[in-house]
Amino acid sequence: MLDIKVKKFNELTIQELYSLLKLRSEIFVVEQDCVYQDLDGKDAKALHVIGINKNKVVAYTRIFKPGDYFDVASIGRVAVHKDYRKYGYGKEIMQASINAVNEKFKEQQIKISAQTYLNKFYTELGFKAIGEGYLEDGIPHIQMVKK
Fold first, then answer.
1. Sign of the CA dihedral running 57, 144, 73, 124
2. pLDDT by residue (tens digit) across 6-36?
3. Residue 57 has what pLDDT?
4. Residue 86 sits in a domain of what CATH number?
5. How far is it, in rounded angstroms, from Cα 58 to Cα 79?
6. Phi and psi at residue 121, in whole multiples of 5°?
7. Measured between alpha carbons, how far is 122 from 114 in angstroms, rounded to an integer?
8. Total domains, the chain
């Protein structure tokens, strides 16, 4: 089970910020072999949902209120360290993120830009694919919405 923290950007400790950026880089740049600009200037607007196991950041998302990323609330940068994926931490961090959107923003509708191969994972969490697939940073994605 993860220890979950939800923090504004200016509430993050330097160590938490370093750890979450390291995790994002390990997954989205190195593991997925994708050169892209992870530091997109949007972290300051986001709430950061951090999953900690034994003092190590092993799962993460960032969430946005309506208008800060999409027209509705959204969840992005969903990341679970590869050594911890077998424990169900992906679903745990996503459920914590959905709950945080509901509680912090008082919103039910959530939009995500999901990597296509994770369609089943997000469908099991109540998301439905909308529109056509597209490439984002060279990786197939699809928009999904949870109402």
1. negative
2. 999 999 999 999 999 999 999 999 999 998 8
3. 98
4. 3.40.630.30
5. 8
6. -55, -50
7. 8
8. 1
Identity at 25, one-letter amino acid code: S
Q: Which residues pair with 136 in a beta bridge?
A: 139
| Residue 94 and residue 77 in contact, taking contact as beta carbons nearer than 8 Å | no
Owning domain of residue 68? 3-107
Distance in angstroms (rounded) separating the CA atoms of residues 71 and 124: 23
Residue 130 counted as domain residue:
no
Q: Tens of pLDDT along 76-91? A: 999 999 999 999 999 9
25-76 pLDDT, tens digit per residue, is 999 999 999 988 999 999 999 999 999 999 999 999 999 999 999 999 999 9
**Spatial separation of the C-alpha atoms in residues 22 and 115, rounded to whole Å:** 20
Encoded tokens for 82: 């590869």
Q: Is residue 15 part of a domain?
A: yes
